[in-house]
Design brief:
301 residues, mainly alpha, 13 helices
Length: 301
Amino acid sequence: MTRHRNLLAFLVLAVLWGASYPAVKAGLAGFPPILFAALRFDLVGLLVLGYVVVSDRRWRPSRTDLPNIVAGATLFIAVHNGLLFVGQDYVTSAVSAIILSTIPVLSAGFARPVFPEERLTPLDVGGILIGLVGVVVIAAPNPRIATTPDLFGVSILLLSAAAFALGGVVTRYLRPVGPRLPLAAYQGWTMLLGGGMLHLGSLALGERQSVDLSVSVVVAFVYLVPFAGALGYLLYFDLLDRLGPVEINLVGYVSPVFAALVGWALLDEPFVATTALGFGVIVVGFLLVKRRAIRAQLVGA
């Protein structure tokens, strides 16, 4: 029963987060990208932190939690999501989701200099390089295909993925010794602080501070805040506790399927063969980099 519940929750999370890419794409018709990201995380942060307070868990950060919260707010929320919302203006929802699926592969590369004990074998290095080749396959211009992804958009999204991967390494390094905030409380504070950083970035870049509302823009924003945002993150926290980081990382390899389907059905976005091929190459890279952890999970099961 527990296994079926986990599988159902995993699929719901994959659908929620996969459909968030088309929702962002739709919302960009009315929002400037950085302001869009800022407003989303203002509200999601309040909802997540409110849930922690209501559930009677520790929510006030201590001084030792602050460096980790600032690092997470900067890299996970401000830089990663700021670049993600900008990059999605240039490519389809499926391409966005697939480029972001390189995060576990990039994380392995960033972890090596910071955690020397995590030795990279030649096979690990090969997996990282294969994952990057997958990105190149997706971005490679093809004059015979009018829907070839925009190289600038792919580059911005790859930087977004790199920021998230680096954030995972930096926040792990800064993790306080001893008691620390519950993960949901930590995420709530990073969202609120990161949202504030995004507001500053939006002003600094001269974005207009107004929104052109339409039915599709409102529906996209409502979907991204309580559903893909608050519900999605709370599902993620729950599954992380029960499945562990290896299995939950696989969400990033299921979400692009739903991103492609929703983008095709609602936004009439095309999906070309080179995108599917690049996705397959990225998955091969992931399997090589994470082969030991996957084997340990299978043996443990």
